[in-house]
Amino acid sequence: MASEDARMKRRLIAGGLALLVIVGVFAFLLPRIADYGSVWGELRQLGWRQVAALAAAELVNLSTFAPPYMAALPGLGYWRASVITQASTASTYIAPGGAAVGMGLSFAMLRGWGFEPAAVALAVTLTGIWNQLFMLGAPAVGLVFLTFQGGSNPALQTVALIGLVVFVVATVGFAVALSSPRPARWIGDVAARFVTWAKRLIRRKPVHWDGESLVRFRLEAVALLRRRWLPLTLATLAGQLTVFVVLLVCLRTLGVDASQVTFTEAFAGWTLVRLLGSLPITPGGVGIVELGLTGALVGFGGANDAVVAAVLLYRVLTVVPTLVLGLVAGILWRRMRPAEAAIMRTG
Fold first, then answer.
1. Which of 141, 143, 169, 308 has a CA positioned 20 to 30 A from the CA of residue 16?
2. For 26-85, how does the pLDDT look when each residue is reduced to its tens digit (9 = 90+)?
3. CA 130 to CA 170: how far, in whole Å?
4. Which of 124, 132, 129 is nearest to 72 (CA)?
């Protein structure tokens, strides 16, 4: 009972801090950068061509949610993969916990459809790893592009360096773990001890996996990646980069042209905030993303009112449709059970 009360207390504190961040950003910090009345004036100037361009960018983005899961879980199919990804992504915008919340929901939904636990765990893990590797490595790519262009950004340099170090360590560790059973067992045991130690600091129960779990995962992962690493990689890149396309279209349709913020600067700022927004501080990075992206783009030379309008529009387009579709997906998923033959092919 005491432990349950302690968990509830931690959740309330975390929720209170998240609410404080969100209110602080939208009620105090963003209005200091641009008056909301002026921001609304910028949005009202959008014509039908701009609206059509925004709608097209958003539709393309939504269409790229499903392919990574299709690559990682053969037999799933496009529409069922769309249901899973829309619902799981929507959950990250509602509940604190970041990607872990979405991964947990994906696992539960796929198991509810009857897919084998091992195949589901592999698909959820690999898609999560590929997305995290992109977010860790992208700031370094953005920094390289920005440097070649002759620009600099101290915040991006710091985040890119940290992200690059973590990216290299994670990539090397993953590759070594897949190379043979012995290093997989050792890395799994070390990782289990580290995670258990970290969870003990916040008074959570130890993990229930160890090096043997990683050895079993290795056999399944190697077999799948030999056949599908390229489709999984390309699908992940498409899913991530079409989000950036939505931001770029928002900027250009609202008058933030290349003379203010170049393609490279927009990409560099986006990669920086994409990584920061993945931290489980607020659900979906609400407040963190808006403030960080606005600060980066204004710092590169974007006009305050137009940048705030573009960032808020970008967030509406990338959050609201997914919330709506995720709700619909949550209602429909039980009615979309795959045929037994499709499930058997994944076993």
1. 308
2. 989 999 999 999 999 999 999 999 999 999 999 999 999 999 999 999 888 899 999 999
3. 11
4. 124
In the numeric block, which tokens belong to residue 31?
A: 């209005």
Token pair, residue 149, equals: 């262009």
Amino acid at 132: Q
Residue with tokens 């504190």: 13
State how far the Cα of 275 lies from the Cα of 285, in Å rounded to an integer.
Answer: 10
pLDDT score, position 344: 45
Question: Which of 86-95, 181-190, 233-242, 275-284 shows the highest mean pLDDT?
Answer: 233-242
Residue 303, classed as helix, strand or coil, is coil
With CA atoms as reference, report the closest residue to 33 among 313, 293, 315.
293
What is d(CA 171, CA 176) in angstroms, rounded to the nearest whole number? Answer: 9
Cβ pair 308, 34 in contact under 8 A: yes
Cα–Cα distance, 278 to 292 (Å, whole number): 12
Q: What is the pLDDT of residue 48?
A: 93
CB 336 within 8 A of CB 83: yes
Q: State residue 263's pLDDT score.
A: 93
HSE-up of residue 342 (Cα within 13 Å, Cβ side) = 16
Report the C-alpha gap between 29 and 22 in whole angstroms. Answer: 10
Structural domain spans, the chain: 2-346
DSSP code of 244? H
**DSSP assignment string, 271-332:** HHHHHHHTSTTSGGGTTHHHHHHHHHHHHHT--HHHHHHHHHHHHHHHHHHHHHHHHHHHHH
Look up residue 190 and give its two tokens.
Answer: 């070390």
Q: In whole angstroms, give the CA distance from residue 220 to residue 74.
A: 13
Rounded (5°) CA angle 136-141-145: 155
For 210, the token pair is 């160890």
